[in-house]
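Lab notebook page, bench 4
Experiment: in silico fold of construct C2
Operator: M.H.
Input chain length: 67 residues
Purpose: comparison with the prior construct
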Amino acid sequence: MAKSKTVTEHLLIALALMLIIEGLLPMASPERWRKLFEQLLQLENGQIRFFGLCSAVVGLILLAWVS
């Protein structure tokens, strides 16, 4: 019988997946990543907050859909 994972194990798995995904662009195309990061620095605080809100909402929707 398989041992069920704890909440901490699930959070660590989620963190590991996030780090893997976040590392793909700088690894594959460092120049493109640098240009993208420079563009992000030009955004206003409100634009960054809106992007963060949208990301969080999409994440919550995906989490609800998968669960």
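Observations: The chain has a mean pLDDT of 91. The longest helix spans residues 7-28.
Next step: discuss at group meeting.
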